[in-house]
Amino acid sequence: MWIKEEQILMKEQANYTNLCASLRLFEDKVGLMRLKGRFANSSLEYEEQHPVILRSKDSSYFTRLIILEAHEATMHHGIETTLARIRRNYWIVKGRKSVKEVIRKCVICTRYQGQPVRAPSSPDLPEYRVDHMAYAFQFTGLDFAGPLFIKDGSKSKKCYILLLTCASSRAIHLELVPDMSIHGFLRGFKRFVSRRGVPELVISDNFKTFRSSEVKKFMLLQGVRQRFILPASPWWGGFYERLVRTVKACLKKALGKAFVTFEELQTILCDIEVAVNNRPLAYVSEDDLDEALTPFHLMYGRSVSTGKQFRSVDCVAISSLDSRKQRLWHLRKVLKDFWKRFRTNYLNELRQTNLYRKVKSNNDNNITVDDVVLIKDDEPAPRTQWRIGRVLELRLIPFEIRDKSTINSANDVDAEEDSENDEVPKGIVVQDDVINARPKRKAAVEGQAMRRIREQYT
């Protein structure tokens, strides 16, 4: 009998004597070891009064099967319900821990309740975010925001915001464009270049307008390098996505339910641009006598105020200087001082990684090769309809983010990094086994994937 064999192996363990004393074990008429317990006078069945003792899941495959049977009998309920079901007939050493480990690997429970892969630890900031002493908007990130609805006569019309932000000074430039077409983007970008200067590097997502041949040709003629983030990974462009959120919050509070024209919205965006560029970049102490460091200080060497005349304490009247060259030297010195404050104040705050410190160290669920995963698409769908994939390989990405995943599902291979990027990133590849095979029904594909998952945990 399998149970007797399990108990014979348990008697050979070093801690069996202590186990007998603590659980008051005894041998019944058929030779099974049971718990004495304190329910002899109760109306419970004999098996519930004196359950059979079993080894832990780590030591016994039979115990694992008992836990799986009880878990399925309780319709995949949690630890408490499964453990209560087991203790009607059996008492498992370290039962709660064993049940928890088995349920954690349950395929059905994982599919419906599994947690997403945790983000990797905070990577090093790229060079253009932390080492910059040239000029604002030398390294620029850009993105579209919208759509916004404006008044066009008696009708409503869509328009979009083109946001451009300096990667180091965190200054923004807003352009209102009628659409996200190639010509609409180029006109907005030309206005930006005419006012802020030509950037050295532009970082953006993989929107088709940004990757079009016309845009690439224009950037090449201007001497601008393009760098694209990983497809379907907007957090790679977090330094401009965060400012998109800031602009949207300001716009929502400024507009409310108002229905404005294109020109009125342009004026509101200019006011928002000034307000965002006047925000302090570092913590302002009550004892700090210096003026708060803002993006405008890194752009112009002074703050920009609306509604009143502003005179910077660092500005010197031209009449008091011997020549305009001295004036130019003075302005350069002012900018240099502000960039020095930028390095000492703002960059020190970027050292903090409190977001990742909050995550428990034992909750490390980073994916590895041959892991079976669920792929959540952009379109909202129930978890039962999510595709199943398998991790093929891990790659090192030297550009901004530490890990990258490529997933091959039943229908296609999720896009890897584009070869036209300036640097080849590092990442992960996930593949489904039905590539280059004849088409299969969706139920057959899912069934094959479920069998692979079961084989992984058996």
UniProtKB/TrEMBL annotation:
Gene Ontology molecular-function annotations: nucleic acid binding; RNA-directed DNA polymerase activity
All copies of domain Integrase catalytic, residue ranges: 119-303
UniProt cross-references to InterPro entries, sorted A to Z: DUF5641, Integrase_cat-core, Integrase_H2C2, RNaseH-like_sf, RNaseH_sf
Keywords of the record: Nucleotidyltransferase, RNA-directed DNA polymerase, Transferase
GO annotation (BP), single: DNA integration
Keyword Transferase: yes
Origin superkingdom: Eukaryota
Pfam families according to UniProt: DUF5641, Integrase_H2C2
Protein name: RNA-directed DNA polymerase from mobile element jockey
UniProt source species: Paramuricea clavata
